[in-house]
Automatic annotation (TrEMBL), chain A:
Gene3D superfamilies recorded: P-loop containing nucleotide triphosphate hydrolases
GO molecular function: ABC-type amino acid transporter activity; ATP binding; ATP hydrolysis activity
Organism: Paenibacillus catalpae
Listed GO CC annotations: plasma membrane
Subcellular localization(s) per the UniProt record: Cell membrane
Record-given protein name: Polar amino acid transport system ATP-binding protein
Record keywords: Amino-acid transport, ATP-binding, Cell membrane, Membrane, Nucleotide-binding, Transport
Automatic annotation (TrEMBL), chain B:
Domain ABC transmembrane type-1 residues, every copy: 19-208
Matching PROSITE patterns: ABC_TM1
GO cellular component: ATP-binding cassette (ABC) transporter complex
Organism: Paenibacillus catalpae
InterPro entries reported for this sequence: AA_ABC_transptr_permease_3TM, ArtM/GltK/GlnP/TcyL/YhdX-like, MetI-like, MetI-like_sf
Keyword Transmembrane: yes
Native organism taxonomy: Bacteria, Bacillati, Bacillota, Bacilli, Bacillales
Cleavable signal peptide: none
Subcellular location: Cell membrane
Name of the protein this chain belongs to: Polar amino acid transport system permease protein
UniProt main location, coarse: membrane
Key words, A-Z: Amino-acid transport, Cell membrane, Membrane, Transmembrane, Transmembrane helix, Transport
Amino acid sequence: MTARPIIEVKGVHKSFGANTVLKDVSVQVEQGEVVVVIGPSGSGKSTLLRCLNGLEKPESGEIRIEDRSLLVAGAAITQIRSRMGMVFQQFNLFPHLNVLRNITLAPVQVRKLEPAKAEELAMSLLGKVGLSEKAGHYPASLSGGQAQRVAIARALAMEPHIMLFDEPTSALDPEMVGEVLAVMKELAAEGMTMVIVTHEMGFAREVGHRVLFMEQGMIVEEGTPQKLFDEPQQERTRAFLSKVL
Amino acid sequence: MHFRFDIIVDYIPLLLKGAALTIGISALAIVLGSILGLAVSFGKMSPRWYLSWPTSGYIHFFRGTPLYVQILIVHFGLVPAFIGHTDAVIAAITALALNSAAYTAEIYRAGIQSIDKGQTEAAQSLGMTGMQTMRFIILPQAVKRMIPAFGNEFIVLVKDSSLVALIAAPELMYWSNVMRGQYLRVWEPYLAAAFIYLILTYSLSKLLGWMEKKGVAG
């Protein structure tokens, strides 16, 4: 018997007012898989990602994370979230806390880690993202690329089973995109389950195990990067790729 | 006109006693009003109608009616209803605190809602509960932005506390009224009172300016 997918999305609908953003979306992600979601702006890809950790609530459908439903009443949503890291386009670091405290806050408050243990963990994660010397700095003094790497370290400090990335490089100056992607590549190589919304097609091709192309709230096509980028089956996929590649 | 400093000097002990009570009443009203105001602001921001409606009504009532009227209602109605008789100081503190809570509630709400939504989302994505998010992420950032507005509110409250002379709470204004009654003179008692209020509000604004610079709770 094979293990169930770590993320299961079935028939999810989501609308904001009269505007339908997700139409009957179903997708599964296996443990250790890196899934990249691409598509034009407004295609619903960020909304799909935000639904995965409950930042948005779909009107109907089912979302299961590690075999636990996210949408039933009284779902242990904070518990599910604590095992799922999220990295935002705008970093969303806590400006009133220094880098170290940004990383240790949730492990201490949510995982109830000893502060000393949390600091040790934070320092090792800062080493991993190459920012050990920034531990005492405040977010305002970091460059975009550094801020995003701290945000990744902050999410990793919860020792999540899944990492969600919502356009992590879209707000960065071009010369800083590489340093963030390098950290993400390393995570993927370690076997982290990742769902990434991005416009970095080269990265999608190199790191993704599977690519989903979304448009108008639907998954139009999915497949391995080779298949999707080199032999797209759908006209809409071809039209999109011809614009961005 | 001859300005009689000598009667001011005679009254200094009583004026200072009154000023001390003004400070005491204002300080207690500020503390109680700020605590109650925080609860009211949470109520008003709640998506649950049975929390948001009453708190919203509370704010409308206390901001939309004169403090003068509120003091009388509290003094002759509310306080006797709870303790059987009335007490000017208790009524003064209660009325000012209830009034101040309505204003501070809106200061809290504006401060909290001024914090970027991404902060809440980041905290939630780390598994923090609503309470933890409020305590560790939102309030520490919001409080800094609220300090100037709180400063204004506190200064208004110190000045408004003069209205409780109406119910004979023996604070600064009460004693300057007594002074006018004794000497049948207006300039000395009221200018003395005005001067003391000015010292109080000026010191308070300096203190708040210093707190703002220090970045309290930073």
